[in-house]
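Title: Prediction job returns without error message
Component: structure pipeline
Severity: low
Priority: P3
Assignee: unassigned

Description:
Job completed but the reporter wants confirmation the result is attached to the right record. Sequence as submitted:
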Amino acid sequence: MVQLHGWQTECLNLWAQNGYMGIVNAVTGSGKTVLALAAIQHLRLFSNRELRVKIVVPQTFLASQWKDELKQHLGANTREVGMYCGKRKDIGRKYMIYVINSARYSLARHILNDIYAGCSVLLIADECHHYGSAENNRIFDFYKALEKNAPYYALGLSATPEIANFNVISTPLGREIYCYDLERALTDRIISRFVLFSIKIHFTPSERAEYEELSENLKRCLMTIKKAYPELNGISSGLFFAQLQRLAAMDYDCSSIAKTALILMYRRRTLCHMATERPLGAISIVKALPTHSRIILFCERIYAAEQLHRDLLEQYPGAAGLYHSKMADHTRRDILERYKHGSLRLLICCKALDEGLDIPSTDAGIIVSSSMSARQRVQRLGRMLRHSKEIKRIYYLYIGESSEDCELVNGLGTLDNCVPIVTLRYTSGAFIHSGYEKLRNKVLEYVSVRALSTKLLEAMDRNIDRALMRGDFLLSESVCRENLLESKSVAQRNYWTSVLYVIHARMGKL
């Protein structure tokens, strides 16, 4: 049997009480796949028919991961697991895994065929928020043809199932039956503890002038639209954007204004993504982290990712890999394998890595640029938050003069009690934290009168810089002393000694 956490057992019971139907909203890395495997086991015990399992995923790499999970946890053999994607079109297997692009015109027919043949069907919709669009929701065409009490069951999985047309997926999958958020997962130690660094960067003067001009034009467009459609006032940014897209597609008076607004929003967002300070800040963070750190850097645009990859290769030859959707499948697979096995320690990527991919052994994530989608930001966090003993580090770069002003931190809601948030400002190639500067000065003043050499003071100053960017100054004194005792080199001992001084300063012991 699959081993479950408490939340998974609770969720599974609610799913059964709801007639084996429903959508589960659970933070990335908390174990949605394991929950689904347990659901298969549970349903098989109570079904008096042969059970056929249909799994739908948005991307091919997820299909491969599901295949491996079915074999590992349920003991499925190769003949029992079928794939329906690309040129491979298996049919009639006990477990069928579909990629959405291939599933649109086939899955509904396959489900009905299995039910008409006397089988029960369990549909698992992984990352189900993808399936509400006009094209993708064709996979649910079977639902209207189902007879009452047909042996059909469903489980939707998502870290953020909220979409504008939620009824499109909730009708065939069931209502949302359970929510397991980031705060609970942290409290339960299901995902790793982490420190979040919120880093304000800035436009150049010319970038700022262009942004302000775009913002003024956008403001006029949105005032016109909201005057015509007052119901758009006060709704969330994600839903507002979805409604704006809907208006732009209609043949109404406001459609041209909505289209203009979307263009202005895109141009303004592009300006943010391509801001000059983003790659400079990202590289400065990499330099501040230990040389053995394994780091994922997230960019929003492929061009920006390619440029950052070139810049990092200059600094760290052979250590950086690039991953994005325009690359050949075999190239992407090779890059991921090299990162997983340690021959690469820096992975620069775009949206292709956002959802579902299990990336182990990652020490830090740098969100170099981010879309306005809260879903993508949570997914990106999840790549680093899978459970481990080490504290993870998340760095979020945002333009202080823009609409993205600290939106990730604001989106974390009530996590202040369990997630340390370090607020920094990046300027002239340095990271500034006013409170930390006071600690630094206090430490250097304290040790300077104890006849330490100028060389040692300079080394201590550099180590204090590193302690800020690594978040080690937030550790307890006991953990710091333990790290000091375990140090295997003079450089490590000097570093942890410096951190200990900062911790003492923070605790008022100097």
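Comment from assignee: result matches the submitted record. DSSP finds 19 helices and 16 strands in the chain.
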